[in-house]
Design goal:
This protein is mainly alpha-helical and 319 residues long. The protein folds into two domains: 281 residues, ABC transporter involved in vitamin B12 uptake, BtuC (Orthogonal Bundle); 36 residues, no CATH class. The chain has a two-stranded antiparallel ribbon with strand order 1-2. Helix 1 crosses helix 11 and helix 10 packs across helix 12. It is globular, with a radius of gyration of 22 Å. The N and C termini lie far apart (47 Å).
Length: 319
Amino acid sequence: MIAILEQGLLLSLAAIGVYISFRVVDLPDLTPDGSYVLGGAVAVSLLYAGHGWVFSTLMAILSGAIAGCVVAFITTRFRINSLLGSIMVMTGLYSINIRIMGAPNLPVPRFDTGSITGYESMMGGTSLDDLLGKTTSSYQGAGVKAVKVPFDNLANGHDLLLIAGIVAIAVVLMWFFLRTEFGMMFRGYGRNRAAVRNLGVNPDLYAYVGLIIGNAFTALSGALFSMYSGFADVNMGVGTVVICLASVILGEILFSQYEPLYGVLFPVVGALLYQFLLSLAMRYGYKIGFKPSDMKLVTALFVVSVIAIRRFRKSEVII
């Protein structure tokens, strides 16, 4: 159960980013499929370079913000639809992520490989010690400098508290931001662009802010997930937008007409519920012929169904 909560909270950070772009500023953005991987690639690469996890995470957030800025530039400067612009950036990020990692995937370094001269120096013994019962409990042998990561994956509550703390800070910061005067205009931009323009404010500014914040959250999620899972992979972001949209929709269904904290809680609660349903499907789905690989198909069908039902109900009201 602890692992489900941890993974759900990690997903909620990316879901907050998608919620901002799709719901708050109403700019469909597929860049999260690439910026999620970008955050993980930057974080793990910096860990390999010897930097701490806090600095690596901050640089990952910055990289995601830059990706969002590029999409905003393409959308506002060249008047290209945000969906098309994000597709181009997402496609380019695939190659950029491989360049950053130097390979399609990169594990989180658990020790400094540059100081290892052989099995004996890494394990503090010989290869026969395991057979003779002389096992070691750590990889930190002589001259090996361990790389610190925030997660221990021991299911003792430490990781859960850390992730929950990060999510809580993110939610509170977004709540404070959205309740400011700038935040009110920011929310108004997504609902009525013409009104914002008539107030004499450049609406492009809010497009930049929305896409930057959205992709920064997604990159943060990717960076933390890479450190949590122990690797960054160029394909780990496939379907991120659809999964996050499903999380947002689940949250909206639960809260119905209410918008606690300006709706920032939608993606958090929805991501937790999605992760719980995913775990149930993977554990008991075999009884009805369900496979884990079917989950993304089911998620896509769920998103399409909910959107179609909402549009159908709106058309009935108009009639």
